Amino acid sequence: MNDPDIWHYDAQDFREVKPGMLRRVFNGNGMSLAFWRIDSSTPRTPYDGHPDNEQFGLIIAGQLDFRLGSDDRQLLGPGDVYYAPQNMPHGDSKFIGDPATGETWILDIFCPVREEYRRA
Amino acid sequence: MNDPDIWHYDAQDFREVKPGMLRRVFNGNGMSLAFWRIDSSTPRTPYDGHPDNEQFGLIIAGQLDFRLGSDDRQLLGPGDVYYAPQNMPHGDSKFIGDPATGETWILDIFCPVREEYRRA
Q1: At CB < 8 Å, which residues of chain A contact B?
Q2: How far is B41 from chain A (nearest CA, A)?
Q3: Which of A40, B12, B50, B82 holds its CA 20 to 30 A away from the CA of A20?
Q4: Cα–Cα distance between B93 and B108 in angstroms, integer?
Q5: What is the domain partition of chain B in residue ranges?
Q6: pTM of the model
Q7: pLDDT tens-digit map of B32-44
Q8: DSSP secondary-structure letter at A39?
Q9: Which among A1, A3, A9, A98 is the top mutation candidate for probing chain B, defined by the most B β-carbons within 10 Å of its own β-carbon?
């Protein structure tokens, strides 16, 4: 991707990758973004890490109840940010949707590009 | 930064870097995040690029009226995403704050780390 670009929010541009989990991916040259819209009914996610990518996450709306390299659970809400280094397990996530939409919105950011996202 | 970490939203953790422009920076090993809260009264920003960093931006709240590699102005709102390759000029920005806060909230994401942000 080498041209400037703008993507307006469009609910139709999200793809359901697991039941209740909608995702829209944006890839640069050195990083990937995953914009998640996750329904409160979604089962708990796996607790694992990814060896090749460091990750930031920003909660945009709703809440995330998860674990980050620990047995302790953390409750995050809008404006909260987390960082998972390469290989650091995270997840075991529950989602408490925003009352307006029933969804939790999260922007996950990966460096370098997540290769499996090139086909997402 | 090599430990997992969580930063809860705290208005006190933002620093005013220009009049009306509050910023909170997060650095990983290969990327930087700038969480902006920008008042509608902020004068137009410069129109320029940065040679070493590609950039994504996500509008979280409020609106951004700006230019991205073009004379044409673009109006972005919540959930909209933009991409500026290295060197691509962007800015000349006006900000229309969310009615609830009077602020535009934007997450800018840079790869690699913006060196000047290491001291931010």
Answers
A1: 1-9, 26, 28-31, 33, 35, 54, 56, 58, 60, 68-70, 74, 76-85, 88, 90, 107, 109, 111-112
A2: 22
A3: B82
A4: 14
A5: 13-114
A6: 0.96
A7: 999 999 999 999 9
A8: E
A9: A9
CA separation for the pair A49, A37 (Å, rounded) = 20
CATH class of A13-114: mainly beta
Is residue A35 a contact partner of residue A29, using CB atoms and an 8 Å limit? no
**Nearest Cα to Cα of residue B4 among A94, A95, A83:** A83
Of A115, A108, A112, A114, whose CA–CA distance to A36 is shortest?
A108
* CA separation, residue B89 to residues A32, A94, A118, B46 (Å): 21, 40, 26, 9
Q: Read off the tokens for A21.
A: 């989990």
Phi-psi region of B29 (alpha: psi -120 to 50; beta: other; left: phi over 0): alpha
pLDDT value at A79 more than 80: yes
What pLDDT, on a 0 to 100 scale, did the predictor assign at position A82?
A: 98
Does the CA dihedral B119-B30-A25-A96 come out positive or negative?
negative
